[in-house]
Design goal:
Layout: E1 12-17, H1 26-39, E2 40-50, H2 63-71, E3 73-76, E4 90-93, H3 95-101, E5 107-116, E6 120-126
This protein binds S-adenosylmethionine (SAM).
């Protein structure tokens, strides 16, 4: 959880998180969005990758898929990753959710399908000047 030790507010030009938001529960994502907004300089940019609609398995079911359909955010908790805590699961984001929800903390400039290494969707954000 934030804060990032030793990083002063408004000192970062560019920050990236590859395949991080795609695994965190919503509350933890919100905490990190607040932290990212804190450390970025005005006009600073964050590149964050997420699992987009293409990554939802065709045979997916359960409450998280209903949440994804209704809100555009789903958190699938039916597994885990060896060596990482239980909270570390699989998050799925639709671009309308990102634009609506993440804009509480950052300007959302673009959501590029498969824009990160032709796999995860790439979200380009900026701290307002
Ligand atoms: C799928 S790996 C991606 C690692 C690296 N960015 C890459 O692309 O190879 C997800 C990363 O999220 C990190 N992580 C797990 N929980 C986190 C949290 N609460 N806040 C920030 N990062 C976290 C893990 O340590 C892990 O390195």
């Amino acid at each position: 959880m934030p804060p990032i030790p030793g990083v002063e507010s408004a000192t970062v030009d560019l920050l990236y998180g590859v395949s991080v938001m795609s695994h965190l529960p919503e509350g933890m994502q919100e905490a990190w969005l607040g932290e990212i907004a804190r450390v970025l300089k005005p006009g600073g940019v964050a590149l964050l990758s997420v699992h987009g609609p293409d990554h939802v398995p065709a045979d997916a079911d359960g409450d998280w898929t209903a949440d994804f359909d209704v809100r555009g955010f789903g958190f699938r908790q039916d597994g885990g990753t060896a060596g990482l805590p239980d909270f570390y699961q699989q998050a799925f984001h639709r671009s309308d959710y990102i634009r609506r929800h993440w804009s509480r903390w950052l300007e959302v400039l673009a959501v590029v399908p498969r824009g990160m290494a032709d796999f995860q969707d790439l979200v380009v954000c900026r701290r307002a000047s």
